[in-house]
Amino acid sequence: MSVYILVVDDEPDVEALFRQQFRRDLRAGRFLMEFASSAPAALERTVEMEDATLILILSDINMPGMSGLEMLPIVRSVRPDVPVIMITAYGDAETRRKALANGATDLMTKPIDFAALRQEIDTRLEQAA
Questions:
Q1: What pTM value is reported for the model?
Q2: What does the pLDDT profile of the chain (129 residues) look like in tens digits?
Q3: Domain total for the chain?
């Protein structure tokens, strides 16, 4: 069974950062990471992965065009079974409130605490098994 995590961020270096942080997990085949550089691309990918085991979506909030907050209710309606963690450089109370009100499971601030993210992924993997 292939288990996927979808990372949505318009910054080109994010994919390299995530692949580096999770290189052992990826090499061991614990999960696969998909990357989308925009909210529309993420929505398209989410629909395409309808039959795949998608265990987590990690999305930046501030992106050109459609923001992560605008994408959130759409992706939650398409895949209500998949938790979404929003990522932002601005962890203020209002941003947190909006993210959670729109269906986010959690909000992480940049720089990302990869140890905490790894724990979240491990929890999702256990639930998917």
A1: 0.95
A2: 689 999 999 999 999 999 999 999 999 999 999 999 999 999 999 998 877 799 999 999 999 999 999 999 999 999 999 999 999 988 889 999 999 999 999 999 999 999 999 999 999 999 888
A3: 1
**Packing angle between helix 39-48 and helix 68-78, nearest 10 degrees?**
10
The CATH number covering residue 63 comes to 3.40.50.2300
| CB-count burial class (<10 Å; 0-12, 13-18, 19+) for 9 | buried
Phi, psi of 65 (to 5 degrees): 75, -115
Q: Is the dihedral of CA 52, 34, 80, 41 positive or negative?
A: negative
The 8 Å CB, 24+ separation contacts for 95-98 are: 95/61, 98/69
Angstrom distances, CA of residue 55 to CA of 6, 7, 11, 50, 122: 8, 11, 22, 12, 10
* Joined tokens for residue 85: 């963690």
